[in-house]
Design a protein that fits this description.
By secondary structure, the protein is of the alpha+beta class. It has 11 helices and 15 strands.
Length: 298
């Protein structure tokens, strides 16, 4: 983001003019914009702003939310570079883990009973949005056993906002992955088709190799791959195929019966409106461009 240059083109004059990046006038400008459009920008459903942590803790969480996979999310904002943003966020994460019932009550009030019953406590997240981060910040997040995203913002002109993920660490979810990976293997064995195990492994490796900052989140009915937001959801193997759901608009894809399907408006596990059906390693190769498109969109 720091090195990104943005230009406005003028087709009639065949010229270009640079749109200069800038920081917010005050921190609240960033917070207000993100909270108003949190699901679009971060894939997080907004729950509360400036949430008080009580007379003992004496804190105030900038934003609370719930992501697409049911993980609790704390969002902290800083106008510029602030060395204390990570420690402040971790302080609030510790409070959150000690007040699970209070958070679930908040979710129940704002999003309903079903959402509250599906909160995923194995992977609470901290998202820090700031004007910049130091190399010490990037190193620090890798030393903590927590899920932390460092996101740099810039305003361009009067109507453009840029968000760049500087670092993303999945923390304790690695422990969950091992158990869930075994569960996926058992499901494939039950289906009496060991080839599905290898196919699932190939899909996993392909999605993780798309770029830096890809995290896996394990749920009972699917495995999500995310960059701030989910870009792919892999369901447990069926007898003869794997189902992957992508954040790609089905209207932009030439749908192929038996390979791709528009599931917008249809109930299914995971998130995404494009269903991809994988039966062989060749199908994984065919789906590569769709994987990349969904990754880029996230």
């Amino acid at each position: 983001m720091v090195g990104l240059k943005l230009f406005r083109t003028d087709a009639s004059q065949c010229g270009v003019s640079e749109v200069m990046p800038r920081l917010a006038e005050v921190e609240a400008d960033v917070q207000g914009l993100v909270e108003a459009h949190m699901e679009t920008l971060l894939g997080v459903r907004f729950l509360a702003s400036e949430y008080g942590t009580g007379p003992v803790h004496k804190g105030r969480i900038d934003s609370l939310g719930l992501d697409e996979n049911g993980s609790p999310v704390i969002v902290e904002y800083k106008r510029g570079v602030d060395a204390g943003v990570i420690n402040q966020g971790l302080f609030y994460l510790a409070w959150l883990m000690d007040h699970r019932a209070e958070f679930e009550h908040l979710v129940r009030d704002r999003l309903g009973v079903t959402a509250a019953s599906q909160v995923l406590w194995s992977g609470p997240r901290l998202i820090c949005i700031a004007g910049g981060f130091t190399r010490y910040d990037v190193h620090a997040v890798r030393e903590h056993r927590r899920s932390i995203d460092l996101v740099r913002y810039r305003f361009f002109g009067t109507d453009l906002l840029g968000l760049e993920t500087v670092a993303s660490v999945s923390g304790d979810m690695q422990v969950v992955r091992q158990g869930r990976r075994q569960a996926v293997a058992r499901a494939a064995a039950d289906a009496q088709d060991a080839s599905m195990v290898e196919l699932a492994r190939a899909v996993d490796e392909t999605l993780l190799a798309l770029g830096d900052g890809v995290n896996r989140v394990e749920r009972k009915t699917y495995r999500a791959y995310q960059r701030l937001r989910n870009f792919a959801c892999l369901c447990p193997p069926q007898r003869s195929k794997l189902l992957v759901y992508l954040k790609v608009d089905p209207k932009d894809v030439d749908l192929v019966p038996g390979f791709t399907r528009d599931v917008s408006g249809l109930g299914h596990h995971g998130t995404g409106d494009l269903e991809v059906q994988l039966r062989t390693p060749r199908d994984v190769e065919r789906a590569q461009s769709l994987f990349m498109a969904s990754y880029a969109a996230a």
